[in-house]
Amino acid sequence: MYLHPLLTGVPARERAALAEASTARFYKRNDRILLAGESTDQVFCVGSGLLRAVAPGRAMGADVTTEFIRQNDFVYAAPISADRYVSAQTVVAALSSTVYSVPIAIMRDLCTTHPGVAAGLLALAVRHMSLLRVHLQSVQGLPPQDLVRRILHQMTQLAPAGPSCYHKHITQAVIASYSGLSREVVNKTMRDFESRGLVRREVDGIHVADYVARH
Fold it and tell me: How many CA atoms lie within 13 A of 46 on its CB side?
């Protein structure tokens, strides 16, 4: 049974009851977990894999990746004071993922009984907002090459496929949607990195040289 780090201090009986109320579902890459505007009474937790939140882009058929949601992160509307919420963004699987859903009412009761769980959720929300702010500042303030370099380093942490390597299914289109750059600019930058030996394609993923990761 999947055990979230926030639940390690919760008595086994309550963890078992939570598991009984939870539903696990496997999503293939690009499967949708939530649609923007969809109402739900569930809190979603990533057990494995990686999700991304997307919003409609200006171009027809394009989307903008606003954030990645990694293992042990939650998808929910804070605060969880109501039994339902409307998703502001579409959430899709960036990689094959296992996602657990728990009724909001049960999660709220757990937070009430165990303040440490509530504090942990708050800490995750604060970290989430901090990461969003830093990413937005990077998108607005960095030159394209520096922005792509920063995102490639992020990918080695969010979707690792070995040391200094990220998963091959994180495509240039996804990187473009996260950076706010065109796919052509991302492709040109990646080719430049490859020609300089800073990026190397491997069987399972894309290796990013230490120089790129440090800068």
Answer: 23
